[in-house]
TrEMBL record:
Source organism of the structure: Pseudomonas indica
Subunit-structure text: Homotetramer, a dimer of dimers. One homotetramer interacts with 1 SecA dimer.
PANTHER family documented for this protein: PROTEIN-EXPORT PROTEIN SECB, PTHR36918
UniProt GO molecular function: unfolded protein binding
Protein name as catalogued: Protein-export protein SecB
Length: 162
């Protein structure tokens, strides 16, 4: 009975709600400018990863969060490949205060999207005949906290992260 009451109160909108509606690839690109010559060289890569998130309010309590992973891999001084994925999700989020909403969109949602983006990127790179990247996990909570501190030091309003 307690479970039914707890579920009923959430379904009636009396408490915070969070629901993943859809995960999808929004954009995907791969370029290997030095192919096929790059495959004949000794492989000693250096990897550069750029990470970005953005959020967009869709309608009512629906939000789109897009996680972008951009990887540039060089073999010596030559670019072996450039790969980018924009992994997106639609989330139903309601009943949160502004600070909690900002944290959910800026850290919690990207944490959900990252494994999908990492797998998509690995698949893309191996299809280009390169070794999988096997990117390490990312601590989006720490990145969110750093961005909040940067914004406060710059005198920007923390709600701008939304």
């Amino acid at each position: 009975m307690t479970d039914q009451q707890a579920n009923g109160s959430t379904q009636n909108g009396q408490g915070p709600q969070f629901s993943l509606q859809r995960i999808y690839v929004r954009d995907l690109s791969f370029e290997a400018p030095k192919s096929p010559e790059i495959f004949r060289q000794e492989w000693s890569p250096s990897v550069s990863l750029d990470l970005n998130t953005r959020q967009k309010h869709l309608e009512a309590d629906f939000h789109e969060v897009v996680l972008t992973l951009s990887v540039t891999v060089k073999n010596g001084e030559e670019v072996a490949f450039i790969a980018e994925v924009q992994q997106a999700g639609i989330f139903l989020i309601k009943g949160l205060d502004a600070a909690s909403m900002s944290h959910t969109l800026g850290a919690f949602c990207p944490n959900i999207l990252f494994p999908y983006a990492r797998e998509t990127l690995d698949s893309l790179v191996t299809r280009g005949s390169f070794p999988a990247l096997m990117l390490a996990p990312v601590n989006f909570d720490a990145l969110y906290a750093q961005e909040l501190a940067r914004m406060q030091a710059a005198g920007e309003a923390p709600s701008a992260i939304q």
